[in-house]
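To whoever is on call:

I kicked off a structure prediction for a single chain this morning and the downstream step that reads the tokens threw a length-mismatch warning. I double-checked the sequence; it's 342 residues and nothing unusual in it as far as I can see. Pasting both halves so you can look.
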Amino acid sequence: MLGLLIAFDGWKLAANQNLSSAYCIVVEVGVMNPSTQYSTLAVAAPRRFDYWKEVVCRHCLSADSKPLSQSHFDGALAINTVGDLDICSLSSPLHYWERSERHLRSGPAEDLWLGFSRNGHGQIEQGGRKASLETGNLFLYDATQAFRFSFGGTENHLVRIPRALLTERLPRIADYTAMVLDERRPGVIPLREMLRQAASAPMSLQDERISNRYSGALIDLLVISLELQDLKTTHQELDLYGRIMKYIQRHLTEPDLSIDVIAQAHNVSTRTVTRAFARYQKTPVAEIWKERLNASREAIERGQVRSVSQAALDFGFSDFSHFSHAFRKAFGVAPNTLLRRS
């Protein structure tokens, strides 16, 4: 054990602990592929989110941020370089980012970002579009435009892409931001797997030539995936899907919320509603159920409910046993356990 004072990014730590618990660890896995890792574990609990915000803003984009839970914040960030790309791997509770016009002026950046919600969830809003993010989703956002972004989970990846690598081949790249790539289209699934492997095994890409070829292949797959998206249908269905999801979120507490009610409220057929959700391999009924579970979890994490029964009843669940079982299956933790933590 070492008694030492560690200073990084303006933060100081007086510690009797080994170096592995330092704020920042730089691991040289190759001349062209250094890995930088951060953790909030060595930071005093009340200051962890501030430290996290500073680190993420330094390595990604300047933006305002706030936690979405009253419980202690624990985050980990690893940055690996693969050819022309920087892969930022994040694990953290759900939290919120907003890049406004003020940030565009004070911290200008030209890059495009590819997100991979590997084991996470959240929401991205940019350019008048909004997309809900779930495990396995790929999505784009643009550093030159304002956005709102909530994200949480484990081993999620954000990839910095030099703008010219995409705009030279896709001049209308702005049409593709804040939408989930349709994995039924060619290219999306292998792209996702290549990203997963690059983030999981950076040492295998330490050779400069291999690293450059790998990043080039990633960009080629991304361009193919984007070119083969059906933008007209996608935007129409995204618009309807997005409007329906907003409606569901506003009416979660209504016990009669159903596909028939949703279709009537949007002046479309139940078949049209089903088709908009089928694009994401989802059903309206399952999404209502999931949104109710997500809302109950958020209420518990924010301390807005005092009991499991209140969390269930407030969001349309009448069978407490069924609610607890579904909650544990969805989130890997029982609602009463999460309630005690919050």
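Update from on-call: the warning came from a stale cache, not from the record. Cleared it. Sanity check on the structure: Residues 1-33 have pLDDT under 50 and may be disordered.
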